Structure formats: structure tokens, C-alpha cells
Amino acid sequence: MPTKHEQILKYIEDLPVGNKISVRRIAKDLDVSEGTAYRAIKEAEAQGYVSTIERVGTVRIEKKQKKNIEKLTFAEVVNIVDGSVLGGRSGLHKTLHKFVIGAMEIDAMLKYVDPGSLLIVGNRNEAHKVAIKQGAAVLITGGFETTEEIKRLADEFELPIITSTYDSFTVASLINRAIYDRLIKKEIVLIEDILSKSAEISYLSIYDTVKDYSTLAEASEHSRFPVVDEVMRVQGIVTPKDTLGQEEDMSIEKVMTKNPITVAMKTSVASAAHVMVWEGIELLPVVENRKLVGVISRQDVIKALQYIQKQPQIGQTIEDIVLSNFTEEKVDDRSIRLHGEITPQMSNQLGGVSSGVLMMLITEAGYSALRKTKNSDLVVENIVIYFLKPVQIDVNLTVKSRVIDSSRKFGKADIEVYHGEQLVCKSLLTAQVLEK
Fold this sequence. Notes:
The chain is of the alpha+beta class and 436 residues long. It has four domains: 57 residues, Winged helix-like DNA-binding domain superfamily/Winged helix DNA-binding domain (Arc Repressor Mutant, subunit A, Orthogonal Bundle), CATH 1.10.10.10; 119 residues, HprK N-terminal domain-like (Udp-n-acetylmuramoylalanyl-d-glutamate--2,6- Diaminopimelate Ligase, Chain: A, domain 1, 3-Layer(aba) Sandwich), CATH 3.40.1390.20; 115 residues, CBS-domain; 117 residues, Hotdog Thioesterase (Thiol Ester Dehydrase, Chain A), CATH 3.10.129.10. 35% of the residues lie in helices and 28% in strands. It has 16 helices and 23 strands. A hairpin with a 3-residue loop joins strand 21 and strand 22. The model has no long low-confidence stretch (mean pLDDT 85).
């Protein structure tokens, strides 16, 4: 029997795209408390089914696929530019394909305004009307309004007219930044990206026995299984160690490991890898709304990490920006050096190098040196900085990293940071090997 929370999520998912959603209406229709309705709406928003817009309300939107994550809906644009909707609210769920700044004559503008685009323009009513008739939404900058006729036209064509107090350059920068951030998110591989939707899930029920475990293990050629209750909620994990020496009619519920660690569809593969290494886990159940939807093994995670490393990156993270100023030099089979400049972007409020930047350089140097001795992926376990002097900006640094210990499961690297001949930092990094 699904919970009230699950019923509300299903209700929201089945609503037509573009529908407005309210806590009070859902509470009344489904006979639940307003608190329960509110929590479910927030969960639906986190899952990408709805979007809440100031002064408009909550709207059911089309859930984006991973490949289209860099596309924005007009509802999201309203929030990004702190805007207000003047007309065409029923089209807020639609996706914009490009934006055009209308700093040209209308005839020239028509060449660039396509259906699904967004025209960014000031107080030019004729441009507003032409854009809507061309199938484009309009974003009016400078806090200006538009005519009632154009608002009615926007409602008729179901294309939003948005107004923002920002100027055209600021609005374009905000939208571009949002798209750029999503490009970075697009590159982050999540559990949902590596989980096979068609693969059959092997699991046991709390009502099964040790004999059922043996039968399933023989048929599936696996030895670890999640254990679920009657509504598919994960209750435990069972492994050969749990069943060893137990009677065949013994209940699985009595021998399983209870309250196992689980991951969600939106958990990153990197985070799952860290959990598996740290906890010594071979199998992680994947849950959605607390129900079992799949499992991932250590082998699945390793393959995904290897795939990630081979992929080109589109968006730059802060780490990319910092490391782009440094070059790597191999010293020998167990040592590397990083050379680069500390720019003003890497400074703290006192004008010295940021502790986060320094930690990033230490981590990269230690990880890189250990990878030279290990043909496996690594998870950084511990970093100890035991000597540190202030480093100002606009200076060149050399980060020296040397592997001092390496075993099948662990690696240690000694890292020293120099400004010229002066030692400014000493650190020790320990990492665990993610075994294949």
C-alpha cells in the first residue's frame, strides 16, 4: 500500500504539464494535511516535476532528461532574473532553445527570432508583438511593462512575457551562467546514469528462507541481495557470511544485515565509490521514494569512474580554473611536480592564497603521484597539513609530491609546496585503492 507521500507524488506526476499546483488544493483533493502536501510538492520540485515562481505559484513542468539539462524552462528564467510575469503564464513550462538580444531594427531581428526562443529587449512594444507572433517569448528589461493588447496576445499564444529590473547585459549574463552551471552538472555521472532500467533486479523478501537465498544465488550467479518488505522498501542485505551454517528453513529476516546503506538515483558515482571503499561494501541498493529500484556493484562503479576519466569536459569547475594555471612534470616513477602561479582569483580576504586552493593543489599532486604507481582508482581518505606559512598572490609555486608507501589497499604521498627555494607547506596524503 503506497504511503500518502507517494500517492501525492504520483498525483502531481500525472497532472498535465502547465497546471498550477497549490498545497491547499492537493490537501483537499487527496484528504491529507497541508504539511504532508507541502513536503510532497517540495520533493516533486527536487525531482524536477514542478517549479515554484514568485508571484505566480507552483507549476507542473516537463521533467528534463539528462541530455537536455542545459535547457531552461521559462519558469526557471523568471526565477533567475528575479522577474515578474505580465502574460502568457500557461506557457511557463515550455523550454527556451536560445535567447536573442533585441538591439537591432525589427526587420533584422526577425532573422534571429525563432519559435521557442526568448527575445531580450527593452521598452519596444512593436518588437514584443512581432516576437510573440513569431512564436518567441519576451523578456523586457529595465522594469518596463507592455500594452494590454500584447498581454492578451501572449495569453492566446501561450508564450510568457516577463519583466525584469535588470539591464539586457545583466539578464543575458545571468541566463548564460545558469546554462553554464548546468553543463557542469550534466558532466557529473549519477547513479541513474549507470543503472540499467531493463535489467531484472534480484532480491529476497523478508518472508523468504535461507533455502530461497541458495536457490536465487545459484540461478543468478550472484551472492549478495537486498531484502525488501511487501511494498518493496529495503529492510536489509544478505550475503554468504550471513547464511553460512544456518538451517535451510531459517527466515532471511533473522540472518540479514539490517538497516543497510542505500543510495538514491541522484547520488553521484564518486560519492557511491567513497561509501563503498570506506564501508567495505560490495553492493549498494538503489532506492527511490524509499523503494528498491535497482542495485549497483563495486564493478559497476569502477567501470563508470573509468568512463568518466575518458570523457572531455565542457564546463569549467573551480578546480579546472585553478589547475589550468599549473603544469605537471614527472620527476621519476614515484614523484611529480606541479608548477604554476597564484592569481588574484585564488586569494582569500587577506590577500593570501585561499586554504581551499592550497588543499586542491595538495590533493591533485598527491593523487597524481599515487596514480603513477597504481593502475586503479583512488579515494582520498586523509590529508594532514603539519607545516604552513602564508603565501601571497602573484607568486609562482612548485608543489612536489612523492609516494612514500604503497600497498594493495593503501597509498601515502608526501607533499611539499615551495615558493622559490622557500618551503611554505608540508603535507601527508593517504588514499584507499578502489579494487577491481
